[in-house]
Design brief:
binds zinc ion, binds ligand BES, binds manganese (II) ion, alpha/beta, 20 strands, single chain, seven-stranded mixed beta sheet
Length: 509
Amino acid sequence: MTALTLSTAAVAGQRADAIVVGVAKGAEGPVVAPGAETVDQAYDGRLAATLQTLGASGVEGEVTKLPAPSGFKAPVVVAVGLGAEPEKDGAYSAESLRRAAGSAARALAGSKKAVFALPVADAADLGAVAEGALLGAYSFDTYKENGKNAKGGKNGKAPLGEVALLGGKPRDKAHKAAVDRAVAVAEELNRARDLINTPPNDLNPAAFADIAQSAAKEHGLKVQVLDEKALTKGGYGGILGVGAGSASAPRLVKLSYTNSKADKHLAFVGKGITYDSGGISLKPAGHNETMKCDMSGAAAVFAAVVAAARLGLEVNVTGWLALAENMPSGSATRPGDVLRMYSGKTVEVLNTDAEGRLVLADALWAASQENPDAIVDVATLTGAMMLALGSRTFGIMSNDDDFRTAVHETAQEVGEEAWPMPLPEHLRKGMDSPTADIANMGERMGGGLVAGLFLKEFVGEGITWAHLDIAGPAFNEQGPFGYTPKGGTGSAVRTLVRLAEQTAAGDLG
Ligand code: BES
Ligand code: MN
Ligand code: ZN
């Protein structure tokens, strides 16, 4: 993982591969952002004009490299676009700093060290730059034969090795805390990305559970793993039904972080389908290739619980990972089968590809038995949510309007794009089954909301609950942008961590 330090040394004397400065899009061309004053002076105040000559405008994500001014120890200056210049006296948003730092870190892959001189006004800005840089520097090369290609040359570039941040005060408590927080969150988020990117032949439910177990040990969490025997004994018909077709048996993992000063308890529940082939209702070709990402919800929950522990938050957080592989075989659940769920309700499985709601139903009911103050589930649940919101925004549904609004505000605060979605009661009757209490499919229209309504039936009476459908943003199939890489993104991790922080501070519910 990329190392991160705070530096107060003069920029000219910094021994590094590059100095990163910010450039904003002003009304009349690029504008050099605060933090880069000394760099600009060393160019005789001509940095903005030079950038304009090179065709730079300061738009978000733009990266321009230029030779460093004479007298600088670093050879290159990297000017990264921050987007529109803030109004007079306004500040750059934390998210624009996070994205710019991420774009710069990505552009510097292959370099050993870079110094970031971005506009940092306070501790929160410092944390945002740190987070953006560490998230942008991510790469997944576990399967790249030590980064070598067939000819023995380098295949990919190693991620930026070290980030030195300017503009912070290393002895200031708030600054130090902001950086420590950014490091913990980014490291755990990057670990979630690693899990998502790991191919499904290596990450089956048992392997995921093992990883959770060793992380629990490392961070002093309590962990309980229910294997197929325990699931059968406990009557977890949803998780067992989804896993029935796979040679790799399902697991339910419970991770508990407790803090002696806590008076609130949050439960996070994650969909952990390590591979979703659709089962007997097999997905058509073209829809299978990225389905290793179907455990992104469980990865996010896992990362958030570990981050909460690392940060020592004064709140109890329980993470539930509902792990199964959805495969077709002679032992698989058939369309038409009826499952008896952990809650006692029966479900007629009309489509084995609507499996996420089945594993979540058991985990939501299990989480409900502890009567937490709130439950938040995270799932790559429906293609319909992607159709509705696109590939960068997750949907938020809830049984409580105020809580849904609170979760949405939290997501916005940490820079995750999300949008509130309704749970219209009239869609419930589409899931009426002639045989069982409910079917696992309803009307096609509003498919994301139908799935949400299904989940709602498995939340304990009176418990505040929100459901995040991250099917769109969990896995980036397009090119990288800002601090978001191709592949697993770590969607919802930062929202969950912030929810835990707010709950600890008594600012939520
Ligand atoms: N894992 C998929 C949803 C999904 C699709 C996630 C694309 C990410 C990208 C889920 O299990 C699924 O197959 N949902 C079905 C439900 C339908 C059968 C009611 C869907 O959305 O088509
Ligand atoms: Mn499916
Ligand atoms: Zn799925």
